[in-house]
Sequence to fold (253 residues):
Amino acid sequence: MLSKRLLHHRQSILPLTATLSQIPYHHFFSTNTTPPPPPQIHDPKLAFRTHLASQRQSALEGGGSKRIQKQHERGKLTARERLSLLFDANSFRELDQLKSHRCNDFGMPQTKIPGDGVIVGHGTVNGRPVCAFSQDFTVFGGSLSETHAEKICKIMDLAVKISAPVIGLNDSGGARIQEGVDSLAGYADVFQKNVDASGVVPQISLVMGPCAGGAVYSPAMTDFIFMVDGSSHMFVTGPDVVKTVTGEEVSMD
Fold:
């Protein structure tokens, strides 16, 4: 009797087995017929190269197209344009292009620009080696920070080492107030380099725009000063401050 029942059940499931055998195997495990996307492979070298290219582009743009346009509207060139005219073609080699400030106060961490407002490097002028720095007014008004000063000191040290003239293209509103005494200490370092290089290598200052506050002392200690008529100004204290303190109205000149 048991064998007849087993035979009966076997005959009843045979049609079902035949039907199931015609269904694709993967249907038993997934209802999604779309193949999964390929896994994302993270390439750290590619990510680094992409980030590096982005930072270099930011350094070349300085304060951005709008500020560059304002610079041109004032009849002034940008820091890089000035260097390209000064040096022989393709001879300028920039140092510390991506260096930025280290200030963590007053929202400054969110406004870091590679280069930090000054371009430093070396090249040839009429075939002779020259070191130079050019302050970028489109970046924080060309104001001097701790790292800004470090870059200037570095190129001045190189000038003394290789016995080359050092040319400073000044276009600065003075100390970067957000950094307080760190900025003022940076000026002290630059002044010391001016003293150390005095009588050793020629120091030439080109005042291309405002040169106010702490920024005016360094050019005063160099061997030669050239100014641009109508756009260059040198003063320790500006007209607004003079009027506030003394009540006297004076011009930029």
